[in-house]
Amino acid sequence: MVQLPATLLDAVHERVLSGLDDSPQREEIARRVVAYLRNTAETTVSVEEDGTTFVITGDIPAMWLRDSAAQLTPLLRLVVAGIGSDEDRAVLVGLLTGLLRRHWQYIVIDPYANAFNRTEDSSHWDIDDTDRDNPWAWERKFELDSLSYGPDLAWRVWKATGDTSWADEKFVTAARTILETVRTEQHHEDRSTYYFRRSDCPAQDTLERDGRGSLTEPNGLVWAGFRPSDDACELGYNIPGNHFLALSLDRLGELLAEVAGEQEDAAEARRLSAEIRAALQEHGLIDGPEGRRIWAYEVDGRGQHVFLDDANVPSLLGLPYLDCVPADDPVYLATRAAVLSRQNPYYYAGLYLEGVGSPHTPKDHVWPIGKNIEALTGTDDAERLRTLELLIRTDGGTGMMHEGVHVDDPSIFTREWFSWSNSMFCELALDTAGVHRDPAP
């Protein structure tokens, strides 16, 4: 595993302290940011012989494309803010670009898998039946975010540093694989061979209709079998996933044009992005409370929709965090109000916590990831500090962030070791301290 430079971690501690001078818990917040950064590096990150970066999710020895990018995103904040020496920041950029090169490898191997093994050893979460036997895949659940996080992170790294070492010989092939997969899954019923079946399991762990998922009608959106929670989609078009995919395709188009010099592929990425955005406007909006238009969570292109939100990102609540919509957009604000209310069946409130949970975890469990996203997409700096302090008080005495925490008893939680959740605490703490993810315009 990887050890971050001690000089860098000291600089992070001082920067967070100086940025949180209004919090009585500033020392504890700064200490935790350093502890979580160190824990992520030392327990989940490894640099492979080929120079790529492999990142396990925590208590599962596999790498999720979504999670791995989110786990290392706090490192980009440190680079953008100029924290540490040039040599320290070069270490961070190396880890980020190495992760991106690993993403490209995996996407070329199998664009439908969500989680991968370190080696081609056929390790897996559970027995399943899909249209392809892939010994690299820990799990082969098709989720839109698996194709989105890499291009988005590559764009952010490029904009922040100018580094293009991530654009290796696999990049263009991976980009074309993404484009082909998007085109195919816009017409899932007619063009896709993908299916996913699992027996003797909860309903959310397999797809109906013999592994094909619920019936959809083409409308410009991109089909997915599973949500960012790894639970099956109830309807085939996940709205937050399509939002993030559209953004990532736009950014992929810029990378293909400006870095790789592939103008035709760049134009295709932008065309697909525009098509998805138009379809979101036409098919993704529903009537919410008081007649206001809000975003659905999923639709099927056949007139059906479902409203909920799940703490896993991409989420409706997290759309501004992902740069998909402005935080003051009226439709987003109406959607946000519905998400943070009983209209969302996975909004829970109790003695210690209230916020968004997930059907992936038991009832009355709020996710720290959801609380961090709620604060990051809000506009109240004092609320951000209160959220950080709340998360510290409700860690069940473990010193770590968890997956879900019971609203009435923080000693009841799921996943004692969940690196993405630790990284999201860092995201909120660093942002609140003025350490931003993107360079100033």
Question: What order do the helices and strands come in, and which of them pair?
Answer:
Blueprint: H1 6-19, H2 26-44, E1 45-47, E2 53-55, E3 63-64, H3 65-80, H4 86-109, E4 115-116, E5 129-130, E6 137-139, H5 145-161, H6 171-185, H7 188-191, E7 196-197, H8 208-211, E8 237-238, H9 239-258, H10 263-283, E9 285-287, E10 293-295, E11 298-299, E12 305-306, H11 330-339, E13 347-349, E14 354-356, E15 365-366, H12 368-376, H13 381-393, E16 404-406, E17 409-414, H14 419-432
Antiparallel strand pairs: 1-2, 3-4, 4-6, 5-7, 8-11, 9-10, 11-12, 13-14, 15-16, 16-17
Helix pairs in contact: 1-2, 2-14, 3-4, 3-5, 3-14, 4-5, 4-6, 5-9, 6-10, 9-10, 12-13, 12-14, 13-14
Segments where pLDDT lies below 50 for 5+ residues?
A: none
Average pLDDT level: 96
SS strand fraction: 5-15%
The helix/strand class is mainly alpha
Radius of gyration: 20 Å
Largest sheet: 3 strands, antiparallel
Named at the architecture level, the CATH assignment of the domain at 47-345 is Alpha/alpha barrel
Please bin the fraction of helical residues. 40-55%
Number of strands: 17
Q: What topology, given as strand order, has the largest sheet?
A: 3-4-6
Task: Compute the separation of the termini in Å.
Answer: 35 Å
Write down the oligomeric state: single chain
Question: Per the principal axes of the C-alpha atoms, what is the gross shape?
Answer: globular
CATH top level assignment of the domain at 47-345 = Mainly Alpha
CATH topology of the domain at 47-345: Glycosyltransferase
